[in-house]
Amino acid sequence: MTDEVTLRTLTLDEALARGEQLADVLIDCVEGGASVSFMLPLARDKALRFWGGVAAGVGRGERTLIVAEDRDGIVGTVQLITDMPENQQHRADVAKLLVRQRARGAGVGQRLMEAVEAAARVQGRSVLVLDTANAAAERLYERLGWQRVGVVPGYAYLPAGGLCATTYIYKQLDGLAVATSGA
Predict the structure, then answer these.
(1) Cis ω on the peptide bond leading into residue 41 (within 30° of 0)?
(2) Are the CB atoms for 115 and 76 separated by under 8 Å?
(3) Is the separation of the CB atoms in 97 and 66 below 8 Å?
(4) Given this model, what pLDDT does residue 174 score?
(5) CA-CA distances (angstroms) from residue 107 to 6, 82, 85, 112, 161?
(6) In this structure, how many other beta carbons lie within 10 angstroms of the beta carbon of residue 135?
(7) Which of 107, 126, 146, 147 has the most Cβ atoms closer than 10 angstroms to its Cβ?
(8) CB neighbours of 160 closer than 8 A, spacing ≥ 6?
(9) Segments of the chain with pLDDT less than 70
(10) Beta partners for 98?
(11) Residue 23: left if φ>0, alpha if ψ -120 to 50, beta else—which one?
(12) How far apart are CA 83 and CA 62, in angstroms?
C-alpha cells in the first residue's frame, strides 16, 4: 500500500461505476474473518448486489458512502445511514467500516471514521451508533471518543461459522445539542 491515501464521498454514478472495486474490498474483509453480514464463501455476484443496493441508497439520499483510495484503487469504505424514523432524524448509523487487509494498520480506518463523523455533522446528526464484533475496531472507536453501550452474546455468525458477540457503541458529536431525557 502506498502512503498516499485519499478519501472522498461517492455519488450514485461513482458508486455504481466502482462496484467491482467495492466488491473486492468486501470479499477481502469477509475472507479475513470480518463479521459484516456475510458468510464464506462470499460469491462475487452477491457482493456486487450488496453494493448495488448501497448505491441505490446513496441515490435516494438515505446513506453516504465514503471511500479511501490509494493508487491501486479502493482500500477502505464506511457508510453513514441516515434513513431514520421520524423521531430519530437527529441520529445516524455508521456501517461497514471495511479496510482491505493490506491497508490495515496505516490509519485508514481512523481517517474513514473521522470523515464519516464530519459528514454526520454536516447533515445535522448529533448521535451516531454502530456495532462491531472486532476487538481491534472497538479499540479504534474508543480512541476516537466512542462510548461502549454493551455486548450482545451470540449475536451473529462469523464468516466461517460459529457465533460471535457484538458490541454496541455510540458517539454524541461535539457542538450539536442532544436532549438527555424524554418527555
Answers:
(1) yes
(2) no
(3) no
(4) 79
(5) 12, 25, 33, 9, 29
(6) 9
(7) 146
(8) 33, 39, 40
(9) 1-3, 175-183
(10) 77
(11) alpha
(12) 5
**Which of 11-42 are b and which e, b meaning 16 or more Cβ less than 10 Å from the residue's Cβ?**
ebeebbebbebbbbbbbbbbeeebbbebeeeb
Amino acid (one-letter) located at 92:
A
Identify the CA nearest to 103 among candidates 1, 29, 27. 1
Cell numbers representing residue 86 in the block: 421520524
Q: How far apart are the first and last CA of the chain?
A: 51
In degrees, rounded to 5, the angle at the alpha carbon of residue 75 between the alpha carbons of residues 70 and 80 is 115
Contact in structure between 119 and 78 (CB atoms under 8 Å)? no
Query: Read out DSSP for 31-78?
Result: HTT--SS--SS--HHHHHHHHHHHHHHHHTTSEEEEEEEETTEEEEEE
Contacts of 106 (CB under 8 A, 6+ apart): 1, 3, 5
CB atoms within 10 A of CB 158: 15
Per 3-state DSSP, the chain is made up of helix, strand and coil in percentages (nearest 5) of 35, 30, 35
Enter the pTM of the model. 0.93
Q: Which three cell numbers stand for residue 41?
A: 464463501
C-alpha grid cell, residue 177: 445539542
Q: Return the closest-CA partner of residue 103 out of 44, 32, 45.
A: 32
